[in-house]
Design brief:
Length: 221
């Protein structure tokens, strides 16, 4: 079915910026404080996952099962460490090709929205200086259902006033590709093929994206 793309929705972490290393250091600090190790391999499981779900996975790794109020305190502590690290973020941390892609969309009259699980998204966009290139921002504070639920992207489409079938989503996590499809959208995987089964199109990073070729590709589907 030919698709005319009228809006572009972007995941944040792993697509526009790489804050995974900061998330990792903060989660590792929490785990170490609780007396167990948390490896980069464990951290892979937290990609694109909400803050509280990330904590649950970490506690599973450590074999701990603390009560709800302690979990809240732990998540708040991890976030405080993470936000401390974000203070050092600058425009130089925008991933290669991300700014150019957002600009290319604007030049073609294609509105853009952020669709991220992070509650820190507005702060990060501000630090990176790319907030003016996004027409709408939907993040963890506007949503109550995590990817692979399509909620974050459906709200993005709604905010931009376009039909879901007219949207393309850029995602680095398998759950995000699933969310895009569940919402009836096209999905471009950003990263390695083995991590992104089902993506309609794949690029190693936005630096490798040819926007016109992508638009033509979806139109020919
Ligand atoms: P926060 P995305 C996600 O961002 C991260 O990939 C994930 O690791 C993190 O746990 C989640 O945001 C929540 O972040 O703790 O800042 O609210 O990939 O959906 O842009
Ligand atoms: Mg991501």
């Amino acid at each position: 079915m030919a698709r005319v793309i009228r809006a572009a929705l972007f995941d944040l972490d792993g697509v526009l910026v790489d804050t995974a290393k900061h998330h990792y250091l903060a989660w590792k600090r929490l785990a170490n404080g609780l007396g167990f190790e948390f490896t980069p391999e464990h951290n892979e499981r937290l990609k694109g996952v909400s803050r509280m779900r990330s904590l649950e996975i970490l506690l599973e790794v450590g074999g701990l099962n603390p009560p709800h109020d302690q979990r809240e305190t732990m998540a708040a502590q991890k976030n405080a460490w993470y936000v401390e690290m974000l203070a050092g973020l600058t425009a130089a941390d925008v991933l290669p090709g991300a700014r150019e892609t957002l600009l290319a969309m604007r030049q073609r009259g294609i509105p853009t929205a952020l669709g991220s699980a992070s509650r820190n998204a507005p702060l990060i966009l501000d630090k990176l200086g790319i907030a003016p290139l996004l027409d709408a921002v939907i993040d963890g504070s506007n949503t109550d259902r995590a990817k692979p639920d399509p909620q974050v992207f459906l709200l993005g489409a709604q905010a931009l006033g376009v039909e879901p079938a007219e949207c393309v989503v850029f995602e680095d996590a398998a759950a995000g590709i699933e969310a895009a499809h569940a919402g009836g959208m096209m999905a471009v995987g950003v990263g390695k093929a083995e991590n992104l089964p089902g993506a309609d199109l794949l690029v190693p990073g936005l630096y490798a994206l040819d926007v016109d070729a992508m638009l033509a590709f979806f139109q020919q589907q």
